[in-house]
Every structure is written in C-alpha cells, then in structure tokens.
Amino acid sequence: MNGVELRNVTKAYSGLTVMSDINLEIGDGEFLVLLGPSGCGKSTLLNMIAGLEPTTGGSIHIKGRDVTALEPDERDIAMVFQSYALYPTMSVRKNIGFGLKMRGVPKDQIDKKVAEIGDLLQISPLLDRKPSQLSGGQQQRVAIGRALVREPSVFLFDEPLSNLDAKLRADMRIELKRLHERLGRTIVYVTHDQIEAMTLATRVVVLDKGSIQQVDTPENVYRRPANRFVASFVGAPTMNFIDGRIMQDGTDIFFDSGSGGLPLVGLPEQVRSLIGRPVTLGARPEHILFDDGGAAARIILAEPTGPDQYVRLAVAGSEITARCGPEQSFKAGTDARIMLDGARISLFNQQTGQAMTAD
Amino acid sequence: MRYNRLALYGLLALAALMVLAPVFIMVSTSLKSMDEIRDGSIFTLPADPSFAAWGTAWFGDCAQSLGTKCGGLSSSFLTSVKIVIPALVLSVGLGAITGYALAVWKMKGANLMFAALLVGMFIPPQVTLYPLIIMIRELGLFGSIPGLILVHLIWGVAFTTMMFRNFFKTVPQDLLKAARIDGAGFWRLFWHVMLPLSLPILGVAMILQFTYIWNDFLLGLTFGGRSGQPMTVALNNLVGSQFGEKQYNVDMAATMLTALPTLVVYLLSGRLFVRGIAAGAVKG
C-alpha cells in the first residue's frame, strides 16, 4: 500500500465519540475528496492524517509506515489551508523555503527549489513581496508552492478555494487538476463544495455526522447514491424524494404515491422485483421528463438560470423540481405533463434510507 | 459645525497649556540665575539664559558638597542605565517567551497560571515589599544592582507575560498548524514566526517597561542600597538635602535631566507605540 491507509480510526473529545471506526484506503496518486456539510468531521479527519489532532484509536499509515504517533513534520505530508496561513512577516521566498530551512537543507538548494516552484506556479515575480501585498489567488498559489517545494508523499488540502471569489475558484480548480495530473502525487482534499468534489476527485468520500456514507467515483456518487443523505447532499437543485410504491397495470408501470400516479419509463428489468413494495423514490430534476403521455402536474414556478430552467411542480401530493431547456415556456397555474426516467431514478428503503437494489 | 471645531481646538489648546505650563516653568527656571529667581515672577523668560545650573546638576558642585562626591547626577545616571537595560531586556524577553508558551502550547494548568499572574499584577508593590526584602536578603542580593534588577524582573514579567499572551492568542490557529507541518518546534516557532509577528507589542512592552523601571523610586530606594542608587533616588537626595538657600535652578535642571530619557524614548518611538496599542486592541 503506497498511499494512505486509515484503520479503525476513532476520535473522541473528552469521552464523546465524534468518529468511530473509520476505514479508508487511499491509493498512490489518487485525488481523494472528503465531502460533507460543516461539522461532518471531514476537517478533523484531515487533521488526524496530518498529525495535527491525535487519534483516539486506530492507526494511520502513510506509504506503508505507521505514522499514528509521529509529529506532523515527520509524516511526509504537506498541507494547504483555507486561510492560506502564510507567515505574514516573511517574504514569499522565505515562506516557500521555510519548511526546507527547518529541515536543515543547505541554502543554495533551497534557493534552487524555490526558484523552480516560482516558475511552476508562475509566481517568480512575486518572490520578494510580503503576503499582505498579494491578492487572495496569489496567496493561495504561494501556499500551494510552500506545500509543493517539500515534495511530500501526500498533499492535504483543507478547503483551499473557499476564500476565493467564484471566477478565481473555477480557474484554480482547473489549475489544481492540471497540477495533480502533472505531479501524480496523492492528494486528500476537504471541501463542502460538491462542484469541486465532482470535478477534481478520482474518488469521493461523503461524510456525515462523523461516519463515511459512501466512497466511490464522482460519477457513481451522483448516479448511484448509497443512501438518502448522499442523494440529497450531492446535486443541485437537490434530488426529489417521494414515498410510495411502484405499481404495474398491464404493461404500464407507474409510481403511486397514494395521492396520484407518475408513469415510469424504461425501468430496468431487475428492479421489477421491487414492484408493490413501499419505497422512497429519488428523482433528480433531470430525471423528470416532459412528455404528453405523462401525468398532469401543476406548474408553481419556473426559474430560468440561463442554460437551463428549473420548474417547480405540484404532482402526486408532493412538490418537485424538474429541469428542462430554456426554450420551453411555462406559465404558473397551468398544467404540464411529466413522467419519470425509470432507468436513472434511485430507490431507497423508507425506514433506513439505504439504496435498494433488486435481490 | 464651525463652532464645534472652535470649541474642540480651544479645549485641546487648554489641555496642552495645562500640561506644558509646568514644563515651561521648569525649563525657564533652570536657565535663570538664582538672583533672577529670587526677585522675578516665575513666568518671565530668563533674561540671560545660562546652562550653568544644568552643569551643576549633572557634574555636581564640589565647592558646596560635604562628602567626597560632588553630588551630581552623572554617576547615578550610569547606575540607572545599568539597572534599566538588563531589567528591561530580561523582563520583556522572558515575558515574550512565557506569554508565547501560555498562549500557544497546551499545557496543564496554563489558565490557572495566567489567573495567578493577573492577580499578582493587581497587588500593589507596597504590600509585598517586606516579604520581597526578606527574599532578596536571603539570596544575598540585598542592596546591590543585581538584587534591584531581580525585583524589577519579578514585577515586570507578570505584566509583559500578560501583554504577549493576549497578543499571541490572536494569532490564527492555521498559522501555527502550518508551522508545525513545516517542522518548527517550540523555539523555532517562537523565533522565526511568533517573535517577528509581535514586533509592535514588543515595542510597546519595551517602552512601558523602560518608563516603569526608569521612573521607579520606591524599589530603587528600598533595594538599591548605596551602590545601586538610581537617578530618581539621587534626584530626591539632591533636591532634599542641600544646606542653605534652595538652588531652584539646579533642582529644575536635575529634574529635567532625570525625566529626559523617558521623554526621548517616547518621542523616538511614538508612532510605534500608537501602532502597538492599536495592534493589541484590534483582534485578528
């Protein structure tokens, strides 16, 4: 195992267990994103990998070495913080070189490496400035440079883009992805922003209330959420949930919420064993199809966003959001006809919230 | 609006006048001869300004003096310097380190220690004077410059610790984490990251400690003995122990000389001082 491995990691604060039995294997060169709402424990987990917070139980291994009892600087990691955390009194050059200096690297080697990093991140002209003279984006570059220069086995990012404005965030996202492709180093990246998670990650870990909800590729987390929490947390606008049963009437298959039916098209053969059982149906806005053969749904509101519009509908006793192109026009108070894309919807157990598979 | 301005400037001018009037009298009197002082109003400017009294105050007047010394302030000025510099450097330096340790490093009983320091600061020095005398005597340092320095250190370090501790508490956690990951331990974090950050506070602590120690009279009188008489004590002796006619011009000159070092420190570091107070006041 060349990356990072967490074995039964537990964290408790004065007797209160906030995380228990976290097991995670992070492969060499992987870009793993820890995703979750605030307070889910993703930063705590990152800090434990960094060695900034002690673990209460379990062990952490980096490149096959047990680092659980080691100090942060002995773990072969580097970290980038949301607040950048640059040393305000040092020039950019000294900021980047500080870690090397602390390790006793000779000065001429530090200078050479800092110059290389300056070229790589295009911050060479800024090397003699103080952090306070830089913009937020430039400061974040320096912070990344400070992590890169040490050439650690693992990079840890703690919401590095959260303090940047939207445009810059998008640019930096692309740059981070390029950097990862170029360097091929293992990255563990904490964020609450699902766009960052979807675009950057090779795998996403969705966390809630101190436990892992799902570990999978971004595509699978989106398409096949493991439970209702993952389904509702990932995706915007959020997934629509309706309780009811899948029913069959001759060749017609439809979803019956108890106060109305919605036609389901293209439901996979293997799901048909669930017909008749109580389920929670999860349909993303793009899983709702506008079709003349569908059920009548009252239009409450249409929100054009530019490329798309989101239509709020009242149907089968629930309010749902559907997505469609901008060319159609919707008038509040009138009816639209909709059906569900049975091939892409998710089904959850009504009690446990776990995704249901046909078996 | 205009009248408000006028009233404001009027009040400020009045305040300045009230503060500066005694200073003016001191300077002007110190430049007069005794004859002029005797018959003139104290507010008139000196007719024939002379620095003779300043010379007497500094070097002493050997003709008038009774002992072997000539009674000038120059030797006690040196004593004051010998007391102030080590006491200043030690109290500010130690305060910075202890304040840093209390603020940044989680150690058991840190809050308790800080509370004890605060309580210590609020006790007037007069209350603990006698126990301190016994303590210093037992150490064999009573009546010596090192003894006096130690007393100043004991009094000053509580104050400087509090200043630095409160400042270092405002340093963002992420910065400390970054330094830990970069491999800076207790001393290197202090030296390379925290101390440079605290320069404004360091300046204020230096200025305040310099003023306290230089202006101190009670501790100098009690612990200094004959060899460790600071300038304030010598000034008191000079002003209070002359025979015959009071040499007001010499007294005034001597007082000015004693006050001059703190004045110079304030003038030279005024901007730093204001910045430091602002840095301490505004969090983040």
Overview features:
heterodimer; A: 359 residues; alpha+beta; Rossmann fold; OB fold (Dihydrolipoamide Acetyltransferase, E2P); 2 domains; nine-stranded mixed β-sheet; 36% strand; B: 284 residues; mainly alpha; MetI-like fold; 13 helices; globular
Please bin the fraction of helical residues of chain A: 10-25%
CATH topology of the largest domain in chain B: MetI-like fold
CATH class of the largest domain in chain A: Alpha Beta
CATH topology of the largest domain in chain A: Rossmann fold
Strand order of the largest sheet of chain A: 17-16-15-18-13-12-11-14-19
Q: Can you tell me the CATH architecture of the largest domain in chain A?
A: 3-Layer(aba) Sandwich
- Given the C-alpha coordinates, what overall shape of chain B results? globular
Describe the protein's architecture and organization.
The complex is a heterodimer of chains A (359) and B (284). By secondary structure, chain A is of the alpha+beta class. In chain A, 23% of the residues lie in helices and 36% in strands. In chain A, the strands form three sheets. A nine-stranded mixed beta sheet of chain A has the order 17-16-15-18-13-12-11-14-19. A six-stranded mixed beta sheet of chain A has the order 6-7-8-3-9-10, sandwiched between helices. In chain A, a hairpin with a 2-residue loop joins strand 11 and strand 12. In chain A, helix 2 (92-102) runs parallel beside helix 4 (136-148). In chain B, 74% of the residues lie in helices and 0% in strands. In chain B, helix 3 (52-59) packs across helix 13 and helix 7 (145-168) packs antiparallel against helix 10 (199-215). Chain B starts with a helix and ends with a helix. Chains A and B meet through strand 6 and helix 2 of A and helix 8 and helix 9 of B.
